[in-house]
Every structure is written in structure tokens, then in C-alpha cells.
């Protein structure tokens, strides 16, 4: 009886600890298919300001590479998602749906060499706030 209770306690404790571990962009938070959808949306809505290769333009910052990674380092995907959702595209702020923004964000992450995974990136800010943007692999 005591052994069973101890086992249950250890299993429950491990589950709680793993649930509390913040997720990172290095954990495969989007799928390849989602990034491909985002590629098409990026070309249509974003490339005219941020360049086809995501390196930025005269008035638009890069969306890949070292400067991009370090600008967002330590923040969350929710922070980046909200910036995109509210202020982009520049000629129609808020004009993309939440799903379209999530797809574009997945494309940006793929182009920044973050790994893909088996689950699509969420389109809810509160879920994305749980995913830490880390410039370097932990």
C-alpha cells in the first residue's frame, strides 16, 4: 500500500514538473505543412516590405537571422504573434486571421532554422505565451 502510494506520488510529481517546464522554439512547435502555408501567405502579404528572403527592407526589420533572433530572445511566441496580429501587414494592420498569422510565424521560424514538430503552432495568444523564444539552442 505504501509502495503504491509512493509510486503514485512520484509519477504525479513528474507529470506536474514536466507540465510546468516552459516550451521553447527548439521543441518543434510547428509543422512543415504549416510553414509551407505560411510561405505562400508571406509572399502575398509580407515580402513587399520584409523582402522575399526575410532580410528586411528600408523600413522593415529582418524576420530571420541573428538580428531577428536576438531582438526576440527571451520573449515568447505570444509576444511576436501579437505584434504581427495587431500591426501587420503595414498596409492593412490586423487584416490577416489568427490562423494566417500562425502560419506566417511558422514560416518565419522554419526560415530561422528552428525545428519542425508533429503539431501545428497554435493561433491563440495565451498558448503561444507559453513558448519561449530562445535565440540559441539550450
Q: Can you summarize the main beta sheet?
A: 2 strands, parallel
Give the helix/strand class. Answer: mainly alpha
| Residue windows where pLDDT falls under 50 for at least 5 positions | 5-19
Shape descriptor reads globular
Sheet with most strands: strand arrangement: 1-2
Count up the helices.
7
Residue share in β-strands = under 5%
Task: Compute the average pLDDT.
Answer: 90
SSE run: HEHHHHHHE
Distance between the termini: 41 Å
Radius of gyration: 18 Å
Tell me the helix content: 40-55%
Number of strands: 2
Write the topology of this structure.
Elements: H1 2-20, E1 23-24, H2 32-45, H3 47-50, H4 65-72, H5 77-87, H6 98-111, H7 125-128, E2 131-132
Parallel strand pairs: 1-2
Helix pairs in contact: 2-6, 5-6
